[in-house]
Batch of 3 targets.
Target 1
Amino acid sequence: MKKRRFPLYVQILLGMLLGILAGFVAVRTGHGQFIDHWVRPWGQIFIKLLQVIAIPLVFCSLVKGVISLKDIAHLSRLGGRVLLIYIGTTVFAIVFGLFMALVVSPGKLCDASHLSGMEGFVQTAVESAQKATEGKERGPLAFFEDLVPENIISAASSNQNMLQIIFFAILFGTALLAVPAEKTRAVRSFIDGLNEVMLKMVDFIILAAPVGVFALMASMVVSNAGNASVFSALAVYTLTVAVALLCMIFLFYPALIFFFSKMSPKRFIRAMYPVQLLGFTTSSSSATLPFNMETLEKKLGISEKTVSFVLPVGATINMDGTSCYQAIAVVFIAQVMGIHLDWGDLLSIVALTTISSIGTPGIPGGSYVILTMVLSSVGIPSEGLALILGVDRPLDMLRTSVNVTGDATVSVLVDTPDTDKA
Ligand code: ASP
């Protein structure tokens, strides 16, 4: 097979830069309409391709995640702790991400009144949110009422019903565990196979990312008539995510290790460095899993028993970097589009992101699909993803490093054979 000349992330970056350039040239030379008619649709097609696989992908990953929890039940005492720490660190990462995004407010640097291309989306979102609450006096249990779908086909007919799909997937996975394995072999291998196919589809779609990002950036520049504030907002957003993720790696995890284990954070950081680098370069926590396991066992002396179940489960369900980034991305997109998020919305973001991080595959760009669903679920048009895709690759690399460090930290916390706090 012929080798690609540039790695994909370089192509995406090039797509972004060329898109911005093409947009500015079109604005200058009065070819805005050409971009609108002939380039913009390719960006929309790319976003739609990401959206179309969202529901089957989330369903399969979640059912697989629930099935893998069976191993946790086997090691009940340790398992309960592991699960609790996984959820705890994920929630912390999201709340920290929200805090950073609300304090720095990168999206507010962008003058929303110029975002003419987004007006339509914002209006649609506001209208659909209004329609949802119209004429209904909503009681305190409305959230739970909405959580349960009355028909799985109609729930799956809109990406806005992500929580209903999640609810059904968890119920389905739990029931699958309760039925004797010999009766469900076919269903399990079907879900396994379907999951693999979905991941392959993500692979294919991501290959189109350079073209998609080019089109999205060019049409964004045109619809903003060269308004540069979007780009300064984007730069501050990138920096905010990077700083938040670095804080997770260099402050949060070492602090957990320091306070809750007997290992020295210095030793942990030193041993983890190559693993983080592999996560960074591959952008895939699944691909980093074997090396992460080996490092924990051989360099940090964590028992094989702990590593062999804490890490694989973690690589599937625990994604602190991804969760932190999603929280910042959602707030940023909402701010740029001038959509106000109240406390209820923020709470939904915490809940949704926590659950959806379980359904995020550990592959490069695995969270794009999930992010489109989180956005639509809180009433933000998922086209907003266009804003951040161009700068996403380096952030994907960084959040994968956080994801793998998070899994390793939990292994150390639940199994610390060494007693050197040096
Ligand atoms: N690339 C990430 C991982 O493999 C997932 C994501 O956030 O896109 O952990």
Target 2
Amino acid sequence: MALTNKVLLIFGTRPEAIKLFPVVHALNAVGGVDVKVLVTAQHRQMLDQVLDIGEVKPDYDLDVMEPNQSLDHLTAKLLTGIGNVLDQEMPDRVVVQGDTATAMVGALAAYYRKIPVSHVEAGLRSYDIYQPWPEEVNRKIIGTIADQHFAPTGVSAAALRAEAVSAEAIHITGNTVIDALYWVQDKIRANSALVSGLCDIEARFLGRKIIGVTTHRRENFGEGMDNIASALEVIAQRDDVGIVFPVHMNPNVRAIMDEKLGNNPRIALLDPLDYPHFSRLLSICHLMLTDSGGVQEEAPALGKPVLVMRETTERPEGVTAGTA
Ligand code: UD1
Ligand code: UDP
């Protein structure tokens, strides 16, 4: 097998950046690999927060994000944008992570040029193509294309083997989100000013149980988001809780949460927190309520229980372990 010497990592959203910055660091530490980073900026502000703390300087930035972007428009822009960079760079290998539009299109554009693809966080399955939507199909497409599958757990590795992926192509690695979490916690230990932005809220909710909340899944838009907001209003009737809710920038989430929860004294609605501040929230909370994938992985690592606000999860390990 020929030695790989130019590796292009492609990512575009907050969670991909969090889970790939440790991989960028690790590849940079390996001699003889020419590491290139292409960000699509499918997310803009939420991506930039991570590039900054994760110390990643992209070689390419497609800056594709548009307000309230549709899946088809986003996908079309990603395909031509990524394709142009691949034609220019012709890497020996492409690395994508997870199940976003950027990851799926990155793998597809590489396949169109017969460039091999490594998939980080491979083999997660809910076995329902509409939950989460469109992520379940995105990761199946990537799994069909990839020739290296980095599965976080034995469960995800078994899911790939059941789809006839050869055992030699599957590597059980753990989840890189834990590397990212430990990295940022080391940074906070060295410089506590990195989390000073939460001091006011910690003082406001002193003596109360802090409940952290995040939500953004497309299949929850509309009625699901409305139900989540109503449930939070009920929880906030207790006088022993303080709800800290950094609201995702997707307008389908923000509009409803601002309208229903904006004036509740026991609910702090915040802009998205940068990764140090979010990790501080994970450390101080009593419980997380979330439909996020990454948060289901991080909270148990810090001993915090998670209530998963979904009908199903592709991360059954937490349910089995009793942490989710
Ligand atoms: C995307 C991913 C989802 C992932 C999630 C992580 C797809 C189809 N969806 O969902 O898998 O779990 O990211 O958060 O790939 N916006 C901003 N600034 C930002 C980010 C988003 O303003 O920094 C707003 C924009 O109006 C944008 C909208 O949010 O159009 C939606 O962004 P998009 O990436 O399409 O979808 P997400 O719901 O964020
Ligand atoms: N996160 C963050 N700030 C926030 C909310 C979440 O840094 O205000 C981090 C969180 O620690 C996790 C990741 O973002 O690593 C999860 O991203 P998101 O929920 O948007 O996407 P998902 O994991 O569901 O794809």
Target 3
Amino acid sequence: MNGKTPFNVRRALATTAMALALSATAGFAQDAAPPDPSETSLQDHQSALDNRYEPSLDNLAREDVTAPGAPEGIPALTDAQYNEANKIYFERCAGCHGVLRNGATGKALTPDLTREVGFEYLQMFINYGSPAGMPNWGTSGDLTEEQVDLMANYLLLDPAPPPEFGMNEMMETWVVHVEPEDRPTEQLNDWDLDNIFSVTLRDAGQIALIDGATYEIKSILDTGYAVHISRISASGRYLFVIGRDGKVNMIDMWMENPDTVAEIKIGSEARSIETSKMEGWEDRYAIAGAYWPPQYVIMDGQTLEPLKIQSTRGMTYDEQQYHPEPRVAAILSSHYRPEFIVNVKETGKILLVDYTDLDNLKTTEISAERFLHDGGLDSTHRYFITAANARNKLVVIDTQEGRLEAIEDTGGQTPHPGRGANFVHPTFGPVWATSHMGDDSVALIGTDPEGHPDNAWKILDSFPALGGGSLFIKTHPESKYLYVDATLNPEIEISGSVAVFDTSTMDGETTPEFVTLPLAEWAGISEGQPRVVQGEFNKEGTEVWFSIWNGLDQESAIVVVDDKTLELKHVIKDERLITPTGKFNVYNTKGDIY
Ligand code: DHE
């Protein structure tokens, strides 16, 4: 602590009422059976921000299934009723309770358990929620009375497991539109490829390729549904995007009109994609991770041919109990070894997958912490820092040595860093920052074991930003500012703004002040609840772009902020910019600069 005021004391003073309210719902429903809802006050059953952010498995929700039979004493559902309930379950419940209802952050809901508590108990829980984290689906108005009853009945019946997705299914979806030998041998367009932004147009099932200097939308390409992230091959030539529906598009940026040259579907629900970045292995492989089925696949980096599919089903790292559906969350590429870094969420394991010999696959399995989600590299690229978000922890991996370095409590509620933000703190030296979904705090962890050994892998400071509901934090080596969004905050002024901290004035003692940039207002968007999400710098690190993410039928925009003056530089508006979310600058993404 360097003799400074302990950050947690300052935080306790500065923390918002929301954080206090949230602490009542912390911990999720892992442990004891939740109390009877009628015994706690309605106040306790309001949904917390972080509970609302659990995965919505909307693609599984679309699949039609046959209703299972009902044992004696339990009303049977027709196929139509069962499918309606199944849809609600996958959109709203499966993120916490699991596809097979075996439990994840929420409790297991298998029929052996639900039949024991019975219809009325389930009905009450769905209606009121629980202080342990279950949203109040009925009293909030999200589900009608009939839907609550339907769901209580559905939970008494057997689950319908969705289909697996192995090599046969992948091969059926794999298409090479342009063979590698038929592709350009040099860049055929005059685009400044390094400064192109790949922008997710979430609900349109598209991405936009936008020039970072002129703000011109160069192209809009069809992709899978709701592209989650974009990653760029180490050479900067191939852009890979993955939809929530597991569809991967590989786009050749050298074509006269950059377009998809190969595509494949790797599962029914997916969130992550990456490419091999180790020297000597550039552009050789791609890897994608799925939520369902729980698996990852290594593909040829030129054609997307699926080469090796690995299931992640297995034992939890701590209790060593079998988990049937551990989702693959963030995947990054090591710069130090020919390995992919794969976060396996529910079992709490980080896999270092060596891609040098796929027939004799070597994997280092690191026991980390459960509910691993997103994360990024430190400024030297040697260390991977990732959030075990439902456990309020950061896990640090040394990618050079291939081992666990540290696990630290952030002091906040549900860390959500994206890839995080690296900067040199005036007092603490190099640090990496995360914001939180469940409260307003920003936490800094020391990342320099050589130069600042006393600070390394310790949470050195924590201070409040705009409010709870933050998803992403961003800076750049050329910038002295740290930008923190509050995307999920219920207050329209807060979700429509970004907090900016001057890192050069931080002293580790006084609470850093921030300025608020009202970006939705700057964009002139007054309808809906425009949400500012995910800052991304241009190549030079002089401008930072934010999506103003609005409803499907409402106006959205991208706002460009001048990083020197913190003034509005430009607003990109276009009727084709439907629900923009993630933005990935080619240069920064391929070089892991953040
Ligand atoms: Fe994301 C990153 C999962 C909701 C926009 N999101 C990630 C990663 C994971 C993930 C595992 C890390 C990928 C990697 O690095 O390989 N996201 C999930 C969910 O499970 C969750 C909570 C719920 C869901 O149903 O998907 C979820 N995410 C969202 C959103 O609602 C966002 C705001 C809009 C959207 O498209 O759905 C969203 N997620 C993003 C973005 C990134 C991301 C923009 C990449 C940030 C970065 O800078 O790297």
